[in-house]
């Protein structure tokens, strides 16, 4: 019995060791998104929950990048169907699924169009990205925004968990509507 258990554990370890967790071309995290994150992120500045209020007073934009967790957008209306509720920091815009390592053309457009709208085209406007603690989705989103030319990007690496631990409250949230591109111009393999 002990041999079988040891062999099973070794097999699981080997599976994780063989699994690519970063895209070799883009550097985005593509697997096991809920694991410890690094102390820094290329293109952004890591902040703590206590820093958020001051940045908001200075007109920073809060962007929640939690995945929809099985949700989907209605292709006609753009409204999301979500199998479970989600809560985020008041004043946030929820851009569901944009923290994934590989985005479709539709998702890339959803991300870039919403950033342009929220910043009113000002790439120097402060933006705070977050999801939950130990979530690589916000790390990916910071890198993706930097690649689009945004300059004042902050990463609330502890996300909503750190926010509530600090004493902050959360409110019910809905993702921004998602409007896919016409079928002829959609590309499911874009890596932005």
SSE blueprint and pairings:
Blueprint: H1 2-18, E1 45-47, H2 49-57, E2 61-64, E3 72-73, E4 80-81, E5 87-89, E6 93-94, H3 105-119, E7 127-130, H4 136-147, E8 153-156, H5 159-166, E9 170-172
Parallel strand pairs: 1-8, 2-6, 2-7, 7-8
Antiparallel strand pairs: 3-4, 5-9
Protein name: Rhodanese domain-containing protein
Pfam families: Rhodanese
Organism: Hyphomicrobium denitrificans (strain ATCC 51888 / DSM 1869 / NCIMB 11706 / TK 0415)
Outline:
The chain is an alpha/beta fold and 192 residues long.
Task: Characterise this structure.
There is one protein chain. This protein is of the alpha/beta class. The chain has a single domain, classed as Rhodanese-like domain (Oxidized Rhodanese, domain 1), CATH 3.40.250.10. Helices cover 32% and strands 14% of the residues. The chain is built from 5 helices and 9 strands, in the order αβαβββββαβαβαβ. The chain has helices at residues 2-18, 49-57, 105-119, 136-147, 159-166, and strands at 45-47, 61-64, 72-73, 80-81, 87-89, 93-94, 127-130, 153-156, 170-172.
Report the order of strands and helices. HEHEEEEEHEHEHE
Which shape, going by the Cα principal axes? globular
Query: What is the CATH topology?
Result: Oxidized Rhodanese, domain 1
Q: What is the CA-CA span between the terminal residues? A: 48 Å
* Beta-strand fraction estimate: 5-15%
Give the full name of the CATH homologous superfamily.
Answer: Rhodanese-like domain
Extract low-pLDDT stretches. 1-16, 184-191
What is the CATH C-level name? Alpha Beta
Helix content: 25-40%
Profile the largest sheet.
Answer: 5 strands, parallel
Mean pLDDT over the full residue set: 88
Number of strands: 9
Rounded radius of gyration (Å):
18 Å
CATH architecture: 3-Layer(aba) Sandwich
The structural class is alpha/beta
Kindly report the spatial arrangement of strands forming the biggest sheet: 1-8-7-2-6
């Amino acid at each position: 019995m002990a041999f079988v258990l040891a062999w099973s554990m070794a097999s699981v370890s080997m599976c994780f060791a063989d699994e690519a967790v970063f895209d070799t071309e883009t550097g985005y995290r593509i697997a096991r998104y809920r694991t410890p994150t690094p102390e820094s992120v290329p293109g952004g500045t890591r902040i703590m929950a206590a820093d958020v209020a001051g940045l908001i007073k200075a007109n920073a934009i809060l962007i929640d990048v939690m995945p929809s967790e099985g949700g989907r957008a209605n292709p006609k209306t753009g409204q999301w169907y979500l199998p479970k509720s989600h809560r985020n920091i008041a004043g946030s815009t929820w851009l569901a699924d944009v923290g994934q390592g590989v985005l479709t053309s539709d998702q890339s457009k959803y991300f870039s169009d919403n950033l342009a709208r929220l910043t009113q085209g000002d790439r120097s406007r402060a933006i705070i990205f977050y999801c939950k603690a130990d979530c690589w989705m916000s790390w990916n989103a910071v890198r993706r925004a930097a690649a689009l030319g945004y300059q004042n990007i902050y990463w609330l690496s502890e996300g909503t968990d750190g926010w509530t631990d600090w004493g902050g409250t959360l409110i019910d949230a809905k993702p921004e509507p998602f409007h896919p591109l016409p079928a002829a111009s959609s590309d499911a393999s874009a890596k932005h």
